[in-house]
Hints:
This protein has 11 helices and 2 strands; from the N terminus they run αααααααααααββ. It is mainly α. Strands 1-2 form a two-stranded antiparallel sheet. One of its GO terms (cellular component) is membrane.
Amino acid sequence: MACPVQFLCRGIRTVGLVLLYYAFSIGITFYNKWLMKGFHYPLFMTLVHLTINFCLSALTRRAMQCWTGKPRVILSWTDYLHKVAPTALATALDIGLSNWSFLFITISLYTMTKSSAVLFILFFSLVFKLEEPNPYLVVVVLLISSGLFMFTFESTQFNLQGFSMVLLASFIGGIRWTLTQVLMQKAELGLQNPIDTLYHLQPLMFVGLFPLFLYNEGLSLSTSEKLFRVTELSPLLYSLITLSIGGILAFGLGFSEFLLVCRTSSLTLSIAGIFKEVCILVLAAALMGDRMNMINWLGFAVCLCGISLHVGLKTYYSKNKGPSLRQLNSKSPELELPLLRQNGDDSAAEFNDEDEEQEITLH
């Protein structure tokens, strides 16, 4: 009876972690879209989220240090500015432009266009020689590109400005996740744990995004009665609370992804991400009034086929490769695993949740 009970417990745990990931991922997508209807300062909102993420990651690092008794890694200024800054800048622009696009496009168009990030991740992985050339990748690219074209074809709610923003964000996202993979693979930096990576990225992300915020929103926000020219306390508190909730959701999303990968595998995260996009589109049509015709839905299905093929290929080839990063005992109190998101949300290190030492391959 031990095996069936253990299998049942593992299944319940996996379902619970997937639902937790869905709650944060779907929640922050709809929450940010709802917030942008009345608060037209997406870059300021992103800066607030970065600040909250930094504070929460610092508290998490402190808790981990107290729990394990081991000091957390702190980079030197030279490594910090030369090796972390490019990743931080790309991440800041990806998130900033993604949030900015919510002012112009629907959730369904945002979700579909963000799926094209897989194409750019593949491209930059080939450029940085993190991915080996494979003829099947051509099929993946054609399926995702065709699906994106069909989804935007004759769309009644298409907005060129918002589409261009989120497409640019997807392009920068390809750079972002490729640089993140390179950063986390550098064993000498010691940033294999996503919490440590998050902690080091946030300040430089804030500095990188702040000039764009000043140029685009600084003057308008300084004269807005929602914040700096507020005449009553209640609107100010309302704005701060709603922005803080978004920051907590953003941190919860990253942490839930980390837990899902640690306790299951990157394949579980990738498959959950595919079904998550289906859920977002169905909810967007039901709750937000997003309109999609048959060609749009067919394009979405074609795109999902491309993404599914990509996930399957990554799983197949990873099983035939040796470990590229390091060995880890799954009973380690820290579970220091690299996390690489895919699809707007994202792809990770593959491993099993067994008791013996596992081999980890970073994709």
